[in-house]
Write a structure and sequence with these properties.
Dynein axonemal assembly factor 4; alpha+beta; 57% helix; 12% strand; Serine Threonine Protein Phosphatase 5, Tetratricopeptide repeat; 4-stranded antiparallel sheet; CS_DYX1C1; Dynein_assembly_factor_4; 10 helices; 402 residues; Immunoglobulin-like; 4-stranded mixed sheet
Length: 402
């Protein structure tokens, strides 16, 4: 039984209450304090200090300081007044028990609300980070596309300049050949025995020689469809593949439920393969990736209890306590009827759900799950020891678990 501390001192003003409780040689870090509107408790083994307050206080503004061998409470009254005493006078055991239970319930509810709020903030932060990353990747993709378009345009211009230069060279060559041919014909006629009129006719014939007109046409080229429209010789294949892979990973990380099953590889369509992959990721400490693998496996087959059981272990590691309870409950629902073959799985489900309840300070519910696990395997020393610790916490004979 704890030793009640009675040698405390207190003072008050119309708006504030000051309580000083001696630690009696106990280290400051070994004390556990709980404060509600009408109840204050400080547990520093083997001593216990508790007060059922005369009137309600403002918990959000009140302050507790531990140090220099004392616990100092600064409490703010909800309504300014001078109290006749610090605690309720002549309170019977039933009233104290009811007030104590109400205080514990209020603290558990607040802890649950804080945990839910923290989890919601974490999800919002993760979603915001992923959106920023996707935006950066999209901008990078546009930059790469612009570079490729610029390179394509420059290559097209260089090709047109090359073609124009080739046409000019061909025209010059053709003209040179024609002139050479005319000179040869003229020289030949000058040294021949033909009359003068024949020479003039030959000259007239040479002057009328006109080179043939070049034929023009177009060549149709068909390319295989690609994500990026540049030609293969201009492609930055490594950058494209890296961008596509990042997009796929981002879609999976944001929401596995919206993932298109047609994008999956053949082995990713096998729930057993995904379960083994989740086990490997869990063993490597990558619990979030393990949850994603198990989410996809559950989409493919939602009747396998081991998938929910394994995902509950991942959520327990990630401190997603409410999700741990949901997955363990779903696994127990599928593990029916209870037979010796599924006894080990049911034992794990009860222990994990009981652990999550205790982390939420719902010790009564946690003890019920541990006792259900002991019915499956009464000789399990670890489960029996943990159940006894929870029972002592509920009875108020042990500090909160480490």
């Amino acid at each position: 039984m704890p030793i009640l501390v009675k040698d405390y001192t207190w003072q008050q003003t119309e708006k504030e209450i000051f309580i000083s409780v001696p630690l009696k040689g106990v280290a400051a870090g070994a004390s556990n304090v709980m404060c509600t509107e009408s109840y204050i408790k400080a547990n520093f083994t083997p001593f216990l200090f508790e007060v059922f307050l005369f009137a309600p206080i403002d918990v959000d503004r009140s302050i507790t300081k531990i140090g220099n061998g004392i616990i100092l409470f600064t409490l703010y009254k909800q309504e300014p007044s001078i109290w006749d005493s610090l605690s309720i006078a002549n309170a019977d055991k039933e009233t104290m028990k009811r007030l104590r239970e109400n205080a514990i319930t209020r603290v558990q509810e607040k802890a649950k609300e804080d945990a839910q709020s923290k989890a919601a903030r974490k999800r919002e932060n993760e979603k915001y980070s992923l959106e920023i990353m996707m935006k950066i990747d999209e901008e990078e993709r546009k930059r790469i596309e612009n570079l490729k378009e610029e390179e394509r345009r420059k290559a097209s211009e260089d090709l047109e300049k090359f073609k124009d230069q080739q046409r000019l060279e061909e025209q010059r060559e053709q003209k040179r050949k024609e002139e050479e041919k005319q000179r040869n014909a003229l020289n030949k006629s000058m040294f021949s025995d033909s009359p003068k009129s024949s020479i003039q006719a030959q000259k007239h014939k040479i002057e009328k020689v006109v080179p043939p007109t070049r034929k023009c046409g177009s060549i149709k080229i068909q390319f295989t469809p690609r994500v990026f429209p540049t030609a293969l010789r201009e492609s930055r294949m490594a950058e494209e593949e890296e961008w596509l892979q990042k997009q796929a990973e981002a879609r999976r990380a944001i929401n596995t439920d919206n993932l298109d099953l047609q994008d999956l590889k053949e082995e990713e369509k096998n729930p057993e393969w995904l379960k083994d992959k989740g086990n490997k990721l869990f063993a490597a400490g990558d619990y979030l990736a393990a949850v994603n693998a198990l989410n996809l496996a559950i989409r493919l087959n939602d009747k396998m209890p081991t998938l929910y059981l394994n995902r509950s272990a991942c959520h327990l590691k990630l401190r997603n306590l409410h999700k741990t309870i949901e997955d363990a409950s779903k696994a127990l629902e599928l593990l029916t009827p209870p037979v010796p073959d599924n006894a080990a799985a049911r034992l794990k489900a009860y222990v994990r759900r009981g652990t999550a309840f205790c982390e939420l300070e719902l010790y009564v519910e946690g003890l019920q799950d541990y006792e259900a696990a002991l019915k499956i395997e009464p000789s399990n020393i670890n489960v029996k020891s943990d159940a006894e610790k929870i029972r002592r916490i509920i009875q108020g004979t042990s500090p909160d678990p480490e």
